[in-house]
TrEMBL record:
Residues 62-208 form the Glycosyltransferase RgtA/B/C/D-like domain. The chain crosses the membrane at residues 12-31, 68-101, 113-142, 162-191, 203-222, 251-268, 280-298, 304-324, 331-349. Keywords: Cell membrane, Glycosyltransferase, Membrane, Transferase, Transmembrane, Transmembrane helix. This is Glycosyl transferase, family 39. It comes from Candidatus Curtissbacteria bacterium GW2011_GWA1_40_9. One of its GO terms (molecular function) is pentosyltransferase activity. GO terms for biological process: lipopolysaccharide biosynthetic process. The lineage of its organism: Bacteria, Candidatus Curtissiibacteriota. It comes from the Bacteria. It is found in: Cell membrane. GO terms for cellular component: plasma membrane.
Length: 495
């Protein structure tokens, strides 16, 4: 052991310290209850997969497949547990922080690499951007960072670009906009290559690597005859988000492209002037395209900003204290790059930014009060969401009624319950807003058909259900008996 420690360089020890601090930043998240809706949806769909279901066919959500496969893998190894889910996320974040450090070593030196790793660990652990949650973005940035590292380490040779392309594809199979960073790398390669033919070959290799995971994915869904369902769920449905942009939607849609255009044009300017395009330009491209991904739908969810943390951390760590000569080109570029980023971030994510520091302090305070016995579990749960205690009470009621592993349908927004009680949903939709979210009346007609054909043993109907479902009400009257009202949720059993 002493020999091993002696072989470790000082900066390796500092990396371990940074990773430990990152873990401490995230520590309270390990003890959060089952509260966040998107996590619950992922969990419900993943649970269906562990029961032998087929994604988009027996369990549906509007994301690409990787997040559900990840949850299913975690549940298969550790069971349905928020502690283990968030611990895996912490490991993913610390692994990504290590990759960020390695990218920094390759580009800006080991000292600044340490700073980049620390900044990344800090940012991705903030509740301001919902970095404590097990969502698509937090998993997506690991393959993106690995792709960038492989390309840099391999000096953009064919092997490194092929595997980088595959990793970018995996990232985009977590969330569609994960492909944007592949464009950033491709543009950077173009800017540093003298011959177009050389860039063309490199680009083909990157595209080939990118296509392999998608080919495998399409082959799987083709085998099950549900390619159209996959495309609709993972991609076509996303267009609905684009129509839900907040006020000033047109301005947002124009402004989100400006930083990327500015970096590209500045790169062409440097190339034309025979000025070396260095790694800082790659960070700028990375940031511009990741912010484009964060702004793409125009929706105001803090976790969208997780995507930008790797590039921002590296750029902040690379800022030099030395004087930088300002010229007209740099000034124009800075304005076109920074002003849209500042404007859009403050506009779209205003609520998260304004309440962020207070939110973080309250989050820690809630955890400390609970850990020291100054808060009851009920009070602790209510801090996160009012539905948590309803979910736990329903869990107890279903356990008392020996309902674990039985068929159950929930008309509402309590998807975590499916995973916790190992419930078998006769419908592929795990929340009521999905039923109303799909086009026309397809969702309601499908659910009504499924419930009549495979009537579940239990039906849960929370007070907060979205919309009136006449077919369900008729089914309850004809076939079910009301057995309990639990925290404003009605529990029915098949007669």
């Amino acid at each position: 052991m002493k020999k091993l420690i002696a072989q470790l360089e000082r900066h390796h020890i500092l990396v371990f310290i940074i990773l430990f601090i990152t873990f401490l930043f995230r520590f309270p998240s390990l003890f959060e209850p089952y509260w966040y809706g998107d996590e619950g949806i992922f969990a419900a769909v993943a649970k269906n997969l562990t029961q032998g279901g087929v994604l988009y066919q027996t369990a549906w959500d509007n994301k690409p497949p990787m997040i559900y496969l990840t949850y299913a893998g975690i549940f298969s190894l550790f069971g349905v547990s928020m502690f283990w889910l968030r611990l895996v996320v912490a490991v993913v974040v610390m692994t990504t922080a290590t990759v960020i450090y390695e990218i920094g070593r390759e580009t800006i030196g080991k000292h600044r690499a340490l700073v980049a790793s620390f900044i990344f660990g800090f940012f991705t652990s903030l509740r301001i951007i919902e970095g404590n949650l097990a969502l698509t973005e937090i998993f997506m940035i690991l393959p993106i960072s690995c792709a960038m590292y492989l390309a840099l380490k391999g000096k953009f040779d064919n092997y490194s670009l092929f595997f980088a392309g595959a990793l970018f594809a995996i990232a985009s199979l977590y969330k569609q906009v994960g492909a944007f960073e592949a464009l950033a790398l491709g543009i950077y390669i173009f800017l540093i290559r003298d011959k177009f033919s050389d860039f063309f070959k490199k680009g083909l290799v990157l595209i080939l690597g990118f296509s392999i995971p998608f080919a495998v994915t399409f082959a799987y869904f083709l085998k099950h005859g549900i390619v159209n369902e996959f495309i609709f769920g993972a991609y076509t449905y996303y267009s609905i988000y684009l129509g839900e942009s907040p006020k000033y939607a047109e301005l947002i849609n124009i402004s989100k492209f400006l930083p990327a255009i500015a970096v590209i044009l500045y790169g062409f300017y440097k190339k034309f002037k025979a000025v070396k395009v260095n790694y800082i330009h790659l960070f700028l491209l990375w940031i511009a395209f990741s912010f484009m991904g964060a702004y793409f739908s125009g929706r105001t969810y803090g976790h969208y900003l997780v995507q930008v943390t790797p590039g921002v951390s590296l750029l902040l760590a690379s800022i030099s204290l030395a004087k930088v000569r300002i010229n007209i080109a740099r000034f124009v570029f800075s304005c076109l790059f920074l002003i849209p980023l500042l404007f859009l971030t403050s506009l779209i994510f205003r609520d998260f930014i304004s309440g962020g520091p207070i939110n973080q302090i309250k989050w820690w305070g809630n955890f400390i009060d609970f850990a020291t016995g100054n808060k009851s579990e009920t009070e602790y749960n209510n801090y996160f969401d009012g539905n948590v205690n309803t979910i736990m009470a329903l869990t107890d009621a279903l356990k008392v009624n020996s309902a674990y592993g039985e068929s159950i349908y929930i008309w509402g927004d309590l998807p975590w319950l499916y995973a916790i009680v190992d419930g078998k949903n006769p419908s592929r939709y795990v929340t009521s807003f999905h039923v109303f979210g799909v086009p026309s009346e397809i969702g309601r007609l499908e659910v009504a058909r499924d419930l009549n054909a495979k009537s579940p043993k239990y039906i849960v109907k929370p007070q907060g259900s979205i919309g009136y479902f006449a077919e369900l009400e008729n089914l309850l009257i004809r076939k079910y008996t009301h057995i309990a009202k639990i925290n404003e949720a009605d529990l029915y059993i098949l007669r």
